[in-house]
Amino acid sequence: MFFFWRTLKGSDVCCVISLGPLAHGWQHVVGPSGMQAVCKRYASGMQAVCKRYASGMQAVCNRYASGMQSLCKRYENAMRTRGRMLRRLGAGTNGQVRRSASSVSYGYLNLTVSDKIMPYVEGLKKKVIYVSSSKDCKAYVQEIQKGVQAGKINCIGLDVEGYKIGRNGTVSIIQVCTQDVYLFDLYKCDNSYLFVKCLKELLEDRRVIKITHDCREDCSILFNQYSICLNKTFDTQVAFNLLLKETKKDLYQISYDDLLYKCLLLNNKHKIYFHKMISLDQKIYLKRPIAKELIQYAIQDVIYLKPLMWSLVDRLLRVCKDGEAGREPFGEDGEARSNPFGEENPRSIKNGDDVMSEGAHSNISEHKTNIIKRVTRLSERYINYQFLNTHVKNEKELQKGMTLDGMVVSCNNLNLYVKLNLSRRGVITNCMRNDFEIGDVVKCVILGFCNNDYIKLGLCDPSLCAVKREEGR
């Protein structure tokens, strides 16, 4: 602190600088010359601080300028890449790119598979076609139908992606896999009526086998919202349960990824990342443009359905042969033998597209045809799931004592879990495991409601219980 005062004579000015409590009250008196020295030191110190501040700001500005320059270069490179991609789609006579919101996008997918499953795969390079206009949809559906008429296409892989796929959900895209992969954008198409009309002709064509995996919710949303009734469906989950039943194993609902690994030795663990994305944002498939990762996820769900069907058919055929010879086709661990393709050469099914063509079974044995027909007939139970509980228009009106139909999806020693074609599932407690199997439809009554989106159910009187079971003989 500085203290100024004037002496009694009024001539001398002194300055007292307090050194604070550490000086024990001691003071030092400085004259005018000392004050001038203090000011000079203060001025020089401030000048040094200003120089340092100026140099620091200059360094910050230089870094900012270099960073902005780098960003500008990256943006310029990105725009050049985008321009090249747009030019590939075609340019008009005036040099402008002819592209609209309903244009078709193309791409290619290169598959990498092992030599053991190569006979099941039709080419390693597939063309991916993204369609969002009714005009293009009609053209590509007609192209597929021409292949059907010519006998080149008899099987297609089918899957649906969207928000809460089921009776009251929203369809985003429908994936169809032939020799190429088609992604039909039903959510953002220019004319949904014409779009659905074209797809309906293809999906209801009885000449075409639709290969799916657990098609119950897909069938429900297509039927209840778009009046599309699937038929002639080969469900790979149904085929696997038939394989378990023939080998006297416990039935369970296997996931698509696990089935791919069992039959085709394909590891789809990278899809965990996509499952995480969808779990964080369930409406992510309704956003446009669709993320590249989600398109890849959608493609992965259909490109292996046809090879998976042929692998399951071969396994079922081998089980039939081994059963006739009195041999056990599976080991103690439930896995197939070391030869995953059985005794016959899988190359015999390379031209399996002719499996269901009229009078043209030269490329496939009659036994395989019968197996496919049997699985197709058993898969009708999954299709009929779309009719369950259609009398329930508003789920808020559900009350205790109401009767519902449920399709068995899992059973253990204590509980029986059923799908109701509603947003909630049902659980029946204290139910004997051997009474029912997966795919049966049981009549039950509402006993209460759980906090985890399950409905507590009880079986109706056995005389009123409608169990629809098809032996598939």
From TrEMBL:
Entries under Gene3D superfamilies matching the protein: Putative phosphatase, domain 2, Ribonuclease H-like superfamily/Ribonuclease H
Biased composition range(s): Basic and acidic residues: 344-353
Annotated spans, Disordered: 328-356
Gene Ontology BP terms: nucleobase-containing compound metabolic process
Database matches in Pfam families: DNA_pol_A_exo1
UniProt superkingdom: Eukaryota
3'-5' exonuclease domain sequence ranges: 128-317
Keywords: Exonuclease, Hydrolase, Nuclease
A GO molecular-function annotation: nucleic acid binding
Keyword Nuclease annotated: yes
SMART domains named among the record's database cross-references: 35EXOc
PANTHER family: EGALITARIAN, ISOFORM B
Protein known as: 3'-5' exonuclease, putative
Source taxonomy: Eukaryota, Sar, Alveolata, Apicomplexa, Aconoidasida
